[in-house]
Design brief:
By secondary structure, the protein is an all-beta fold. 0% of the residues lie in helices and 49% in strands. The chain contains no helices and eleven strands.
Length: 85
């Protein structure tokens, strides 16, 4: 997958009672594939883990010339979280 010249903003990941309990406020990678993000912005995204991006199971992700600002995770990885499982 290629993501180029994109913006992700104000994307909360909700589950259950409306709390921030999900993974990957903007993007959740769970496909065991190779992906590339370039010239993109991630702003004000919220999740429990991976406020901007959550990467599961060792996906191969390359990020170039991209900006992460004001993303929030209440557990791990305000901008990006890699789950090694």
């Amino acid at each position: 997958m290629y993501i180029i010249n994109s913006s992700f903003s104000n994307s909360p990941s909700y589950i259950g009672d409306g709390g921030f309990s999900g993974h990957g406020g903007a993007i959740f990678f769970n496909t065991n594939s190779k992906s590339n993000i370039s010239n993109s912005n991630f702003t004000n995204n919220i999740a429990s883990e991976g406020g901007g991006i959550f990467i599961n199971n060792g996906d191969d992700l390359t990020i170039n010339d991209s900006i992460f600002s004001d993303n929030f995770a209440n557990v791990n990885g305000g901008a990006v979280f890699l789950n090694p499982n």
